[in-house]
Amino acid sequence: MTQHIQVLLEDNHLLGVLKPAGLLAQGDRTGDPTALAQARAYIKERYAKPGDVYLGLVHRIDRPVSGVMVFARTSKAASRLARAFHDRVVEKCYLAVVVGSMPDDTGELSGFIERTHTRSRMAAADGPRAREASLEYRVLARSELTLPTRDRRRKAPARMVSLVEINPRTGRHHQIRLQFSAAGFPLLGDLKYRAPEPLPERAIALHAARLRFPHPVGGETVELAAAPPDVIPWTLFGAAIARWLNSPAP
Fold it and tell me: CATH number of the domain at 6-246, please?
């Protein structure tokens, strides 16, 4: 079943959307539906635009990840937004559910990452393709979770899991997924990086929850925020997520 974007914000320069897990941000060799194509179709239909619709892709989130995205409706906005992402002016905040009870309520993860053709991995500082990666995190809640299985006769083991707020300082490929896995707390469902079990629809428990940036034309602060999908494991932490969403961003 094809997943669909939800429009969160719209003006003459920007289109902010919520991308569901399982939907590509942009096209790849699979030819599967994409958030970019759906956003273009939305603009074309809403404004009855003839021909091709311009929409600039200025950042991406992985296919199995849900969360907020912003597209540029003009080339000027695209150029300025791309620069804001490159210069780390854009504030990005994620929510994740990781396997295990993280011992510290706050902390940081740092190291060096190198990217291969299929994945990223931790690397020595002097590696030929090593790039520094760091993030800050805060544990919002901890709980016990038992995942459903396809075989109803078999019960998955109960596991301690932690709901974590993540603020990346850098934007390396698969950075959050890799760094938490390397620390011994893989993201729930992320089989690529050592999670013990899959989640339904091959999703991983990572959600791009908030983006904050200066408007590319007006300069005022724009904030996009959205709750994770109403599915396991997020439903386990519904109260904590609601408190987080209703609290002012730092």
Answer: 3.30.2350.10
